[in-house]
Design brief:
The protein is built from 9 helices and 14 strands. By secondary structure, the protein is of the alpha/beta class. The protein is globular and about 65 Å long.
């Protein structure tokens, strides 16, 4: 099997690659060789370990997005400034490679000057979401380690804001005193209560967080309920801060199924009926859009 081209989503902790052919996906592979674990000279070998079975005669184009273009990545790529289309095939940056079987290009991220903000990888998911929903105007939320809310108008990212929601949840649930009261499992009612509390009084978030610990010690708050409430508090506080991005607007959620389900539930309590899309599917659609544009330009 030889791929026509290869799509790569290179995150901080994971490397994902998809071999593409005339009819679509031919094969998929992933590894733990995330951008955060590699030195600059380790990226090409890590990529080849994953995609070598898909290479053959001639040169196979590789289109990559994500942290691979960050200052800590393979090849630093300058971000494009908003407002702008999420992806511009003419702005792709070619990476020097040693192996003559591949050519590698990186999709630039986006930056916002005031207030300062950046994204790398999400721009490709946004481009894919817009390819799947042509003419969409409204808000796109990309939940994850770093959750992002983006205002979309006329095919452009007009503005966006990043929240450390996922990272803060991971830090507090794994490394803080709160970890002693958390357990695997889930409680929807506790999550809903946390969302409501976080939205109503985001200024009280620090106190609300410790109350999870106190209720576990004094009132026997079950571990699964504590975990769900912690998640709800963070998502509720995020929604309160991002209100201008979603209030009265159509909303698309792009991310892992579990996260988009939580955000959809939280938004539904605010009478917002959000549509959910797969992050992997949107990334692939975005990269395919760039690959199609490049193919047309070559002809």
């Amino acid at each position: 099997m030889k791929a026509d081209w290869i799509a790569v989503d290179w995150g901080t902790s994971r490397l994902r690659a998809v071999a593409m052919g005339p009819e679509g996906i031919l094969a998929e592979a992933q590894s733990d060789d995330g951008a955060g674990r590699l030195a600059p000279d380790g990226f090409e070998p890590a990529l080849l370990r994953l995609i070598a079975p898909w290479l053959g005669p001639g040169v196979t184009p590789v289109l990559a997005c994500g942290m691979v273009g960050s200052p800590e990545g393979w090849h630093e790529v300058a971000c494009r400034t908003t407002p702008c289309a999420p992806l511009d095939p003419d702005a792709l940056v070619t990476v020097p490679v040693r192996d003559a079987r591949i050519s590698v290009q990186i999709v630039p991220g986006l930056k916002q000057l005031r207030p300062a903000d950046v994204m790398q990888g999400e721009e490709t998911r946004i481009a894919g979401a817009l390819a799947l929903h042509p003419g969409f105007d409204g808000a796109i939320c990309l939940p994850g380690t770093h959750s992002r809310w983006c205002q979309i108008s006329a095919g452009e990212v007009v503005s966006f804001q990043t929240f450390l929601t996922g990272e803060m949840f991971a830090l507090l649930s794994e490394q803080s005193v709160l970890r002693h009261g958390l357990a695997e499992g889930w409680d929807d009612s506790a999550f809903d209560a946390g969302v409501a509390e976080g939205m109503a009084r985001p200024d009280r978030l620090m106190a609300q967080l410790f109350r999870i610990r106190a209720e576990g010690l004094i009132a026997g708050l079950p571990g699964p309920a504590a975990r769900a409430r912690l998640s709800g508090l963070f998502i509720g506080a995020e929604l309160a801060a991002a209100r201008a991005w979603w209030l009265g607007l159509p909303v698309l959620l792009v991310g892992p199924d579990r996260l988009t389900a939580l955000y959809s539930r939280a938004l539904a309590a605010q009478a917002v009926n959000a549509r959910s899309l797969s992050a992997t599917g949107c990334t692939l659609a975005g990269l395919a859009r760039a690959a199609g544009a490049l193919s047309k330009a070559a002809r």
